[in-house]
């Protein structure tokens, strides 16, 4: 189980790093208050750049837990939806059975996926969108 959590965390880290690489490199990070522009127009540009960069961070997330099979209990299967403000991100699903566990990742763009989503994945994506 801990190996699965490690693999899932590594996958989420890769997706986050990919999204972060799309964010334009603008001034602002690591600067002190004294280094910020003093005029209102420049401050407005700084805030706009920061807000634009936030568009590509995973701020929408939801987890749906469920029993994937009738012979297992405890809602050990789960789906995690992670998306930015544009609806781009990933849906990660882990299906737990009696003898094995399988994990799937599907890319999301514009709040939908080219791959067919399960009802649980659709639910997680819908909950993340709220």
The main pleated sheet reads as: 4 strands, antiparallel
**What is the number of strand segments?**
4
Q: Cα distance, first to last residue?
A: 30 Å
Which structural class matches the secondary elements?
alpha+beta
Overall helicity: 25-40%
Secondary-structure element order, N to C: HHEEEEH
The average pLDDT value, as a whole number, equals 81
For the biggest β-sheet, the strand order reads 1-2-3-4
Low-confidence stretches: 23-28
| Strand percentage | 15-25%
Query: Based on CA inertia axes, which overall geometry fits?
Result: elongated
> Count of helices?
3
Radius of gyration: 19 Å
Would you mind describing this structure in some detail?
Residues 120-130 have a biased composition (Basic and acidic residues). This is DUF4446 family protein. Residues 1-19 form the signal peptide. Residues 107-118 have a biased composition (Polar residues). Residues 107-130 are annotated as: Disordered. With 130 residues, the chain is α+β, with helices and mostly antiparallel strands. It has a domain at 57-129. The protein is 35% helix and 23% strand. It has helices at residues 2-21, 40-54, 119-129, and strands at 60-66, 77-83, 89-96, 101-108. The protein has a four-stranded antiparallel beta sheet. It is elongated. Residues 23-28 have low confidence and may be disordered.
